[in-house]
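Tutorial handout. Part one gives the primary structure; part two gives the three-dimensional structure as tokens.
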Amino acid sequence: MTDFDDRATDRGHAGRFDELRTGFTAAVSHELRTPLARILALLDNADLPGADVHALIDQARAEVENAGALIDEVLFLSELESGREIVSLGHTRAIPVLEEVAEDVEAAAARAGVTLAVEGDSSIDVPLRPRMLRIVAQNLAENAIRYAGHGAHFTLSIGRAGDFVVLTAADDGVGVAAYTLPRLFERFYRADAARTSRGTGLGLAIVKHIVVAAGGEVEAEGDRGRGLRIRATFPT
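Part two.
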């Protein structure tokens, strides 16, 4: 390959990176405008006669918290993509971390009417730092709590499949349309319009980035009315 070809290739890579960065910036800006617009509307409503100011303040506080969570996840994803956050450094025993995550989200799950379980071989390790495994498990659990629906059961499990370790997050809830499954790990993607007011839209994107950075793969299975199963597969 000539120097000219090398320069052309570099320009092509730079152009694609700039395009992705521009698209990501536009998406972040759009997502932040939504809670800000809601906060302004709530403040305007607080000036109306007979307004329940305390309730409006509580709603505005929730919107601020949502915006803060979005900013935190955007910054974390940026650190992952830049390589500043090391994903895989040694191995972590999975079951203790999964049990800690289940305990941490138990109250939120109870409010949503979702029951939780952790299953698997207690001797299995995954090629992730403890913090990274916790982030993956928590995002998977929170996704189910938000969207599986009242009465659903959610299970985090760890097992082996040949030469691979498999972390599975499965629920028997409302599920999503099968044609949306390949897009679930895209940034800010929501499977239907009813989900636009909940979550940051980055949880599963973060899960995928961590799993892939550790040399693994992630996939989603399910359909409407058949729940959702997310499998993260790691080489041993």
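Part three, for discussion. Residues 4-14, 193-197 have pLDDT under 50 and may be disordered. The first helix runs from residue 3 to 46.
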